[in-house]
Design a protein that fits this description.
About 50% of the residues lie in helices and about 20% in strands. It is an alpha/beta fold. It has four domains: about 130 residues, Beta-Lactamase (2-Layer Sandwich); about 160 residues, Heat Shock Protein 90 (2-Layer Sandwich), CATH 3.30.565.10; about 120 residues, 3-Layer(aba) Sandwich (Rossmann fold); about 100 residues, Up-down Bundle (Four Helix Bundle (Hemerythrin (Met), subunit A)), CATH 1.20.120. The strands form three sheets. Strands 7, 8, 9, 10, 11, 12 and 13 form a seven-stranded mixed beta sheet that branches. Strands 3-2-1-6-5-4 form a six-stranded antiparallel beta sheet. A five-stranded parallel beta sheet has the order 15-14-16-17-18, sandwiched between helices. A hairpin with a 3-residue loop joins β10 and β11. The longest helix has about 70 residues. The radius of gyration is 36 Å and the shape is elongated. The protein starts with 11 loop residues before the first helix and ends with a helix. About 5% of the residues have low confidence. It holds the Pfam family HisKA.
Length: about 650
């Protein structure tokens, strides 16, 4: 048949742009549109119904009943005329219609005798397609049927709008997620770059402070130490804020000596109290000795609040008090209060002081220093423990910050660790894996001060070589090194060399989940840089005074496989052999895809491997693959998926070894 001319709307360019905005052309079937088409067929009692869209050259059917094709040329379409109208086009009998009586789809083709089409009109007035009812016999719709078609047409447009909004929201969500990931990565990398030289500054200053100094030198060293510690507080505040925002800062629950912790905070801060200020610690006589909770976060909260009070109190007193306010069979409720007679806070500022980067007065930062992050972090740390912080203050008369925390009761006081830590460690021989020359020199001096021997490896591979030749009591492992980093080195020591030697992670990095990853690959302790000598010695004592064992051997649950086998042991053996043959190769392929940012291959590999891990009930490894698959779908790998990839690598080696034994 010859192509015939067809009408073109006066706003054709804008109409086509409106159509393309919905990204609907050539998409897969959709239940919402199919249901609408079925409804049209049912309401109008017709064998042919469709939802279609008209572009430059064709009529494309998003959903159809009785058509049997996905598209037709635009020039043979009845709907070419429908999109020219603002209301429904109804032709009760095409044989009697001058325009269509000789049309090939009337005399043959689809044998159209009845046609009803309503334009699909966008909110801004463009007819991008049609909703149609077609029959092989003449008929006429009643008013209810016409109204129903109008309602369904509006529903189709609403569905398009909703889908577009969801795509836009999803795009914005991905942009926001990537922005957060970029920010977290930037903060973590910056913290590493800042912490590395800061570690040397603080470390060598501590060593210098232990030498014989005159009064002036002692004063200078004290000033450098204070400046270094203040800089470290700012870095830690920013990183804690990032972890809280991303939901990766968790509250630990371990037994700790409450009275000892509170006295430690007091002793830590009292050395900086000026002579014009009286600094007090009042503890309730009924206060429990040991509780279960997060000692580190309590330290952080009290040091921050008390440090603020001391900073803003030039004369008078600062009092920290702790009182038991309630008790149940399982919990103590303890009220913590930090009260001062300092500058106070204006009443109109009390509601904003917990906002980040906010201080009560602009002059406060200039006069007393600080970032305005401390109180915001304190507030969020308290809220993470299901409580809230309150403040009372009057300008010129001082302030009181107070909150109530619930701590679980400890069944018994564990004093064994304290006894162990007091024992002499003897002359330890330690291996340090560290590539930074300043940090090597610092560690060498610190370790020699402890009375221990030290060998240094420039990277992980050198560390492995030294471990192969010499006997060591302990390894201090930097995480970021050339050739083999700390994670790869630890995996090799644990999985290939099968050594139980204690390994302490030492890093200036502070990526979310890093500490967890260190423990997952087989490290025994974690010391962030810059480290205090006491902190490092404490970590060394803790790992040397416990029975060091390899990580608990993984147990493979074959219950699902056994159920699938219906009692056939050969089937189980075949499945195990298939896993051993297939999975290590696929993990290698996944790592290659990951390193090349080949998201499509990584997504397919992760998805396919999950079913194998599920059969062997390896839920933790299946979760690792889910994280990698999700980030591959998003088109961006983060430090979390890299963590999961590395955990997967070491775990699969372990699983294969166990399965081979089976």
């Amino acid at each position: 048949m010859k192509n015939k001319e067809y009408p073109i709307p006066h706003n054709e360019t804008e109409r086509l742009a409106a159509l393309k905005r919905y990204n609907i052309l050539d998409t897969l079937p959709d239940h919402a549109f199919d249901d609408a088409t079925k409804l049209v067929s049912y309401i109008c009692g017709v064998p042919i119904a469709h939802i279609s869209f008209i572009d430059e050259s064709r009529q494309w059917f998003k959903s159809e009943i009785g058509v049997g094709v996905s598209e037709v040329p635009r020039e043979i379409s009845f709907c070419n005329y429908t999109i020219m109208e603002s209301k429904m086009v109804e032709i009760p009998d095409t044989f009697l219609n001058e325009r269509f009586k000789d049309d090939p789809n009337v005399t043959g083709g689809f044998k159209v005798r009845f046609y009803a089409g309503i334009p699909l009109t966008t909110p801004d007035g463009y007819n991008i397609g049609t909703l149609c009812a077609v029959d092989h016999v003449s008929k006429e719709l009643n008013e209810d049927q016409r109204n129903a078609l109008s309602i369904i047409a509006k529903h189709v447009i609403n569905q398009l709008e909703l889908s577009t909004k969801n795509i836009e929201l999803n795009t914005q969500r991905k942009i926001a997620e990537r922005a957060v990931l970029a920010k977290d990565s930037f903060l973590a990398n910056m913290s590493h770059e800042i912490r590395t030289p800061l570690n040397a500054i603080i470390g060598f200053t501590d060593l210098l402070a232990q030498t014989k100094l005159d009064v002036t030198q002692r004063d200078y060293i004290d000033s450098v130490q204070i400046a270094g510690e203040n800089l470290l507080i700012i870095i830690n505040d920013i990183l804690d804020l990032s972890k809280i925002e991303s939901g990766n800062l968790t509250i630990d629950a371990q037994p700790f000596n409450l009275r000892k912790t509170l006295k430690h905070v007091y002793n830590l801060l009292k050395v900086k109290v000026p002579s014009t200020v009286e600094f007090n610690l009042f503890l309730d006589a009924d206060l429990p000795e040991t509780v279960i909770g997060d000692q580190g976060r309590l330290n952080q909260i009290l040091v921050n609040l008390t440090g603020n009070s001391l900073k803003f109190t030039e004369e008078g007193e600062v009092t920290v008090s702790v009182k038991k306010v309630a008790e149940t069979d399982d919990y103590y409720s303890l009220k913590f209060s930090v009260k001062d007679t300092g500058i106070g806070i204006p009443e109109d500022k009390l509601k904003t002081i917990f906002e980040r980067f906010t201080q009560a007065e602009e002059s406060t930062t200039r006069r007393f220093g600080g970032t305005g992050l401390g109180l915001n972090i304190v507030k969020q740390l308290i809220e993470l423990q299901h409580s809230e912080i309150h403040v009372k203050s009057k300008q010129g008369y001082g302030s009181e910050f107070f909150f109530v925390l619930d701590y679980k009761k400890a069944d018994h006081i564990e004093s064994e660790n304290e006894t162990l830590l007091d024992e002499e460690l003897g002359k330890l021989k330690i291996l340090l894996c560290e590539d930074n020359a300043l940090n090597q020199k610092l560690a060498k001096n610190v370790i020699h001060n402890f009375g221990f021997e030290l060998d240094i490896a420039e990277n992980g591979q050198e560390g492995i070589d030294l471990l192969s030749k010499n006997e060591y009591d302990l390894v201090l492992m930097d995480l970021q090194m050339p050739v083999k980093d700390g994670y790869q080195t630890t995996e090799y020591i644990r999985c290939e060399m099968n050594l139980t030697i204690p390994i302490i992670a030492m890093t200036a990095h502070s990526l979310v989940g890093e500490q967890e990853r260190c423990y997952n690959v087989g490290m025994d302790a974690y010391v962030p840089k810059p480290f205090k000598q006491a902190m490092l010695l404490e970590a060394i004592k803790s790992v040397m005074n416990k029975d060091i064992k390899l990580p608990v051997k993984r147990k493979i649950d074959l219950s699902l496989l056994d159920e699938m086998s219906c009692g056939d042991p050969n089937f189980i053996q075949e499945m195990i052999a298939l896993f051993i043959q297939k999975i290590p190769n696929e993990v290698t392929q996944l790592e290659e895809a990951f390193n090349k940012n080949d998201y499509d291959s990584a997504k397919k590999l992760a998805h396919n491997m999950k079913s194998s891990f599920d059969i062997f009930m390896l839920e933790d490894l299946s979760h690792c693959l889910s994280v990698i698959e999700q980030e591959a779908i998003m088109g961006q790998f983060t430090t979390e998926s890299e963590d999961r990839k590395n955990i997967l690598h070491c775990s699969v080696i372990e699983v294969v070894k166990i399965l081979k034994e089976l």
